[in-house]
Amino acid sequence: MTSQPAVERPISPVGERNVDIRTKVTISVDGTDVSVLEGDTILDACNSAGVDTPTICYGPTVTPVNACRVCVVEVEGSRILVPSCSRPVEEGMVVTTDSDKVTHSRKIIHPRKTVQFALKRSIR
Ligand code: FES
Asked: Is the Cβ atom of 70 under 6 angstroms away from ligand 1?
């Protein structure tokens, strides 16, 4: 594994140098290489690659997080589908968002969870 150098961001309006010390990692999303910052999620990488990934429970004011599993993707080497909204990227990761396994999961399993999730949220 090789890491790229830290990303230096432009000087802020108040004159401070804003340096993000995280390194960049490159992963493959549906066959497209995309570089994102270490610690970003697979969902961030999908967004950077222009791949639309559905989400329900992901957002700054939404709880519980990581519960709906509608954002699952396939990661090479993983036996199970992983939630893209919470799984951090790793260098060399190979992600597939439109495999039969992912599509099956979203079509068969998630409509029920989506209804359960919506009902729970409406009760609060
Ligand atoms: S958006 Fe709900 S688990 Fe990822």
From this structure: yes
